[in-house]
Amino acid sequence: MAAEGEYESILCVKPDVNVYRIPPRASNRAYRAADWKLDAPDWSGRMKVTAKGKVAYIKLEDKVSGELFAQAPVNEYPGVAMETVSDSSRYFVLRIQDDNGRSAFIGLGFGDRGDSFDFNVALQDHFKWVKQESEISKSNQLGDSGPKLDLGFKEGQTITLNIGQSWLVWPRWSYILCVTAPSASDKEYYTF
C-alpha cells in the first residue's frame, strides 16, 4: 500500500461519529440510512481521516483512549471502500478491513451536515492531489513533447514601453524605454 518512509498526514478529525450495523444489500440498489436503526447506534467515537502516500485511511477511534476500533483504507474516491447512501447526506457505508485483509461493511453517520461535508471535502482534496501527482509524474516521464515556445526577440524587432511620468522632477519628464533586438552584425543598444 504505502511505501516505507512516507509520512502520515491528518486530513480531517471529527470528534463525534456513530457506527451502525447495516443489513446486507438485497439487490443492486443503493444503501438507505432509513433501513438502519438510527436511534440506536452500535458504537460512537471519533473519526480521523489520514493519508499515507496515495492511500487515505478512515480510522474510527475511542474518544477517550484513542484505541483503534476500525479502519477503512480508501484507494479511490468515489469507490467501493466508501459509498454514500441514497436518502441522506450525513450517512455513508464504509468497507472496514483488519490486518488479515478480512472486510465488513458498516454504516457511518454524522450528527451535523457540516461534519459530513468536511469529511467529503477532505477525501476529494486528497484524491485530487493524487490525480495531480500522477499527471505530473507522467508528464515528467514523457518529457516535454509539446512545441517549444520561442519568446526571444527576432532580428530587428522593437518593443517600446511607456514607463510613465515622474512627479518628482519639474517639468514632468516622460520616460520611454525602447528595446531593439540586435542583428548578428549590430551591437546591443537601449534608448531612453
TrEMBL record:
Keywords: Cell membrane, Cytoplasmic vesicle, Endocytosis, Membrane, Phosphoprotein, Protein transport, Repeat, Transport
Coiled coil: none
Record-annotated NECAP PHear domain positions: 7-164
One Pfam family linked to the record: DUF1681
Keyword Protein transport attached: yes
BP GO terms, sorted: endocytosis; protein transport
One cellular component term from this protein's GO annotations in UniProt: clathrin vesicle coat
Membership in a protein family: Belongs to the NECAP family.
Role this protein plays: Involved in endocytosis.
Protein name, as recorded: Adaptin ear-binding coat-associated protein 1
